[in-house]
Amino acid sequence: MKLLVVNPNTTASMTATIAAAARAVAARETEIVAVTSAMGPVSIEGFYDEAFAVPGVIHAIAEGETAGAQAAIIACFDDTGLDAARTSAAIPVIGICEAALVTAGQIAKRIGVVTTLARSVVPLEELVRRYGFAERARVTACDVPVLALEDESSDARGKLEDEIGRAVAGGAEAIVLGCAGMADLAAELTLRFGLPVVDGVAAAVKQAEALVALGLATSKRGAYASPSPKSYAGAMAPFAPRA
Amino acid sequence: MKLLVVNPNTTASMTATIAAAARAVAARETEIVAVTSAMGPVSIEGFYDEAFAVPGVIHAIAEGETAGAQAAIIACFDDTGLDAARTSAAIPVIGICEAALVTAGQIAKRIGVVTTLARSVVPLEELVRRYGFAERARVTACDVPVLALEDESSDARGKLEDEIGRAVAGGAEAIVLGCAGMADLAAELTLRFGLPVVDGVAAAVKQAEALVALGLATSKRGAYASPSPKSYAGAMAPFAPRA
Amino acid sequence: MKLLVVNPNTTASMTATIAAAARAVAARETEIVAVTSAMGPVSIEGFYDEAFAVPGVIHAIAEGETAGAQAAIIACFDDTGLDAARTSAAIPVIGICEAALVTAGQIAKRIGVVTTLARSVVPLEELVRRYGFAERARVTACDVPVLALEDESSDARGKLEDEIGRAVAGGAEAIVLGCAGMADLAAELTLRFGLPVVDGVAAAVKQAEALVALGLATSKRGAYASPSPKSYAGAMAPFAPRA
Amino acid sequence: MKLLVVNPNTTASMTATIAAAARAVAARETEIVAVTSAMGPVSIEGFYDEAFAVPGVIHAIAEGETAGAQAAIIACFDDTGLDAARTSAAIPVIGICEAALVTAGQIAKRIGVVTTLARSVVPLEELVRRYGFAERARVTACDVPVLALEDESSDARGKLEDEIGRAVAGGAEAIVLGCAGMADLAAELTLRFGLPVVDGVAAAVKQAEALVALGLATSKRGAYASPSPKSYAGAMAPFAPRA
Amino acid sequence: MKLLVVNPNTTASMTATIAAAARAVAARETEIVAVTSAMGPVSIEGFYDEAFAVPGVIHAIAEGETAGAQAAIIACFDDTGLDAARTSAAIPVIGICEAALVTAGQIAKRIGVVTTLARSVVPLEELVRRYGFAERARVTACDVPVLALEDESSDARGKLEDEIGRAVAGGAEAIVLGCAGMADLAAELTLRFGLPVVDGVAAAVKQAEALVALGLATSKRGAYASPSPKSYAGAMAPFAPRA
Amino acid sequence: MKLLVVNPNTTASMTATIAAAARAVAARETEIVAVTSAMGPVSIEGFYDEAFAVPGVIHAIAEGETAGAQAAIIACFDDTGLDAARTSAAIPVIGICEAALVTAGQIAKRIGVVTTLARSVVPLEELVRRYGFAERARVTACDVPVLALEDESSDARGKLEDEIGRAVAGGAEAIVLGCAGMADLAAELTLRFGLPVVDGVAAAVKQAEALVALGLATSKRGAYASPSPKSYAGAMAPFAPRA
Questions:
Q1: Which residues from chain A sit within 8 angstroms of residue C135, using beta carbons?
Q2: With CB atoms 3.0 to 4.6 Å apart as the test, which of B51, B197, C40, D129 could cross-link to D236 if both were Cys?
Q3: Is the Cα torsion angle A164, A168, A170, A174 positive or negative in sign?
Q4: In CATH, what number is assigned to the domain containing residue C79?
């Protein structure tokens, strides 16, 4: 099974971190194809960056689908363009925020989601609400820019651990890492804090494998109906839905 | 006061309908500058079209702001790119769905939102929820494609009236027209049904004038903080936030 | 356009504060007619005072409507008698709590409502819920009696600023002033805290102008149907609905 | 134990119906003192009537408390003035809507509330929400004016039974009668429909006896704190809270 | 009237505490029959203990019903087996958590529920939600094992008072004691804290008396329909529903 | 990997159906060990049966864990004893209702859950709510007793298809089969209705494999903390938690 993992930001080093996390948990027969978005922001921090990361995500999934991928993962914690991708792709599309929450939700009642910057808290709270976890998950930020997670000389790791500590003290029974750039830390943090720490990239790999094995794809009735063929103007023309 | 009204789809005839509806209610000292998005879909029907309309909306608002607009309206009922636009623009940005709901909510308890196609019902229900009207507003579709609203030979008008009739029978005390392309029908439908029928374009003009008169602009703390300057790759490069 | 602003308490000096705030933002063609309720409490602090302020509000709106007002504002933050007034008045009726919330909601995601006394917190939370802001707005009290706001020798201003500071530290992106008696402070507090501070009186003036310009009045179907004509006994007889 | 039952409307024949229903279930040692409000509407149908029934309710409870009542019941299904009464009375105050819902909620999961006129549906839905039954109770109207319930020549009984039938077909496991004027019908309707039919007046008598026996009275901290002494002007002067 | 009070844990000394609390508030004509469950855990702390207390509760209620009880109370704060008991018993069944909340809800807006161990917080939050008090009640734990409440040499009482103090400081207007083992403390704590402290056992006695006096029993339509007769295997065979 | 699948009812033929459905989707390296509960009801229909199925489920999971199972599935759609099992087992425990919902939720926005009997609708609605799908999933019943699903001469299949048809007409985008006894029908129904039909048994197998592959087990902090060692009396003694 070929599984496409799209990094919605354009930072290739983060794609490498994500790919490694995906491969570490993939089934033997799963081939992970990790791609970096070809257009858009170097990191996604809040509503604005997210909007401009969507075309790159859609493009990468369309290309991956043509190349034979059987499912796709959007590996940014705001589930960039997930609803749009589900309408256009024939293969299942998984978001790492949704995957992390449904995974954590099967091993804990109260969940602490720790993300990077304060500006991402409300967008993630809106996702958490949409996925049905408003009463179970609390979102907080550790005040670390996304790319600082890649910089070993920063104090990112310490700040993240401090925030996890506060979440645990506040009643969290499991932690969800609120940024794909933290994907390499889950195992160590699980040991350190003595409770489950869930990385969305790894969780999404297993959800994707699950849907493929079950023979399930996105419903094309209602909200996820295929886009009607129509013309798109200007720079967006290449993305126009075809019959 | 200069008020920018952006039609997020690329259909100029619909921009004309929208501009007329806006001018019909604007204050004498308000100048309506209506623009058609330069890039993206000819009509917005569901999650996919919406995603590709966002860059054009952001671009148009940025240009309008440079040209002296004091507020901007996004004139598509899914409030295309509203959150992203609010982070990047210094001027207030109004969505017609939000404006219509808060207007209708001050004259009625139960609201019927009538939109075009079934695939838009869930996206609008998610907006309605986010704006706090989940318990007060019901979204239904009249099964008319957006551009058929422009086609006088279609049965669009009849289907819309039938659906409004069903909403009223089901307890709606006011109707919100769930598509900018219906902007010219509000007055007539109000008369015909004997209850308030609210068009979001007109409602948004007054909300925009209100914010400007109050000297209020989008908060730059938290969720709507200005995007951090960073580079964007590929086709999205022109949209990169600058310092 | 003639716009009636009713101060539901019987303190004329507060009516003057309110009237000034209303006039400061009214359109040139709007005439503000501010009246003090002729009956009821000198200040409204909690459920009991509110109940006895309603007849005065209804009476003032009925008189104002007869005298040609095209819309009415109820200028107390518990939106005293708003639902009752909407059934009996033919003109639109605006509550300052609802107006402030829908205004703040278009420029911020998370809102701090700062009111006077602790006993008003729950009544306002119930309003906030009813208006759909339960997930977005938090109500707190600065422990200042309403009339102390009028007393320059009190420490009211300091306590209010302290409470706003706490709300901002807790994540509020905009502040709503939870008492009509604070109407004169919005501009200064906006500057001081560097985020939008919304006064409900000013917000309500613009909402009222909006409804009038849009030709919208309260729906008379369902919850806001005109009261059935019937006799009222005793001291309430003058308020009996007529055919 | 002396238990005050206040009929918030001024129709004495309805007070008699209510008193009989109360006495039928009262404990042997409970004396029912039923009073008709001395001021306000002959029947309460919607927001407007309700507002003008409040002073009469408060007045009757204050008088009853002075005369030795140990608890008070507000016998109109919109729980007229309940919050205000709880702040001013030292004795517990019971609303028949709240009492009926908490009673029905202990014998059924899904509840059908059948009220009189369509205009009362939304006000009751707001109560149902406030009492925590939004997911369990549905409110519908049988289209019978309140006073028609007293008129044996009307078709009120038939219409009520039809509406109960619809509620049962729709999944209701118990019925709550949504008007004090239906208090005499609960027993017969229980037999006829083979499921519990709850009358709020009877339910409230038992809740009142319960609170008295438990030695519990309304908390005076927070929302129900006693009104601060202050002057009330005009027709409302007699209701001013005293120190 | 004969009222069965079942202690779902097997600790007879706690049954004595519960029986005393029940008798202290029962009507003169009510006979309290208190029984200790014959099977299951010595104390109920969290989901696991609760599951194994259910058969004993059902058994005790069936025996009590045969012996002439007219209503039954399940005297553990997680309302052990309440839904199952309501389907099988013909007599009304009362849970002390539900009874305490509906009682407290009629004398206060905001409620603090203080339970024993942290592991019980989430199970009780789920109950609080189901009973409609999610917005009004907060559950906290005082970190005292259930049986320590019986041990006078422990610091249980001090820890409980500390936690009540924190709840009051946080805005609670009434306190609900979140364990049947605290039933003897309500009166003293009411005095000490100057606000209503509600014990669920006492509250349940009055709710049970109320239902019996009203002639109301559990609806047998829908969720509480009598179990279909069928065979049960192994150790559960004695509990099989009979025709 | 050894995966235990427990049929909480005692009907071995249904265990065979469940085992076949589990094996059909299990990974090559997964060994499905399917067991029939040794004690409790032959079918689980509503709250009562569910309560008496829990001990058998817990017992089977404990035995399976000892025998080397790495995860356990509870294969009844009311997720019988799931919370209790999660506290006592060291291995992850999956419920088929939760697994089906989180699977369907990744391929559709609106979900129709079709269960057997009307009495199960409310219990399942409570689960749906707890899992966060209250706004997305509707539960209906096809009026077929559980064991009739095993009887080829019954009209069970026709009634189920009729109910699915109604759910689709009402806007469902995916169907969840609300009984483990329907596990063999998912593939055929998917073809027949042209939208995803999700069987919880199959979904749970993949969720269990996912958790094991991710190295995640139930959090032992808070709600799912291991039961405290204590003695259990009578028939429940064998289930007492040990140190």
A1: 129, 134
A2: C40
A3: positive
A4: 3.40.50.12500
